[in-house]
Design goal:
Blueprint: H1 14-17, H2 24-30, H3 33-47, H4 50-59, H5 63-82, E1 87-91, E2 96-102, H6 103-106, H7 118-130, E3 135-142, H8 149-169, E4 177-181, H9 194-200, E5 202-209, H10 211-219
Parallel strand pairs: 3-4
Antiparallel strand pairs: 1-2, 2-5, 3-5
Length: 223
């Protein structure tokens, strides 16, 4: 596991994890100060950095929140245009983006070696990330529950690390990224069905605003 790994803790629940069809700009500018502070704490949990969470909470609800929402909206649209083999979602009320790659696209069963089909998707993803240097990335690998934790836990880490390594080799600064594995411990679908297990075998990349982005938004200079 990367020593700078961000811990993921979704304490804010579904309210913070779904986009509900609104643009990030609207959501960024429309949240009141109390909700903004709670939202900031939620993002801070995702980032594993309470200071970062507090900073985000301080800007949500005003002009700075709108600027961050605009920036994330723009990057989300870019990703939707360029990266076809992934699910791209606004989360935390528009203050972050979650990109989910089906591990069947990236890896052969039981393997952490990137397959040929992953090259285009990750290359296009890297290009979008490179053009948005003020964001941070958290890469998380997941497996289904087939096999033991002894196998699945390191497999999930190694899959996340493979994505991390690929992105660094395509110009993404290592200090912008962290990675970790969750094994089979955070399923999003029913592991008793083949389709559910397929959904659970995935790599998620969280795109988060950096302190630089937050400070630029506070100054009104974020473009």
């Amino acid at each position: 596991m990367n020593k700078k790994t961000f811990g993921i803790a979704f304490l804010m629940g579904a309210m913070l994890l779904s986009s509900c069809g609104l643009s990030n700009a609207i959501k960024g500018g429309g949240i009141g100060s109390a909700a903004g502070a709670a939202l900031g704490a939620g993002i801070g949990k995702i980032a594993g950095n309470t200071g970062l969470g507090a900073a985000i909470g301080a800007v949500v609800g005003g002009t700075a929140g709108t600027l961050i929402g605009n920036k994330m909206d723009k990057q989300k649209r870019e990703l939707e245009e360029k990266v076809k083999n992934a699910k791209i979602e606004s989360i935390n009320e528009g203050q972050a983006i979650r990109v989910t790659f089906d591990s069947g696209i990236l890896f052969a069963t039981g393997s952490s070696v990137l397959g040929a089909n992953s090259q285009t998707a990750l290359k296009d993803f890297a290009a979008s990330i490179a053009s948005n240097p003020q964001t941070l990335l958290q890469i998380i690998g997941h497996t289904d529950n087939t096999g033991s934790d002894k196998v699945n836990d390191p497999l999930s880490v190694n899959r996340a690390k493979s994505v991390y390594t690929y992105l660094t080799s395509h110009g993404i600064a290592a200090e912008r990224m962290t990675y970790l594995g969750k094994g089979s411990h955070e399923p999003i679908a029913d592991n008793t069905t083949a389709s559910g297990r397929k959904e659970n075998r995935r790599v998620e990349v969280y795109i988060l605003p950096s302190q630089e982005m937050i400070e630029a938004a506070q100054k009104g200079t974020l473009k």
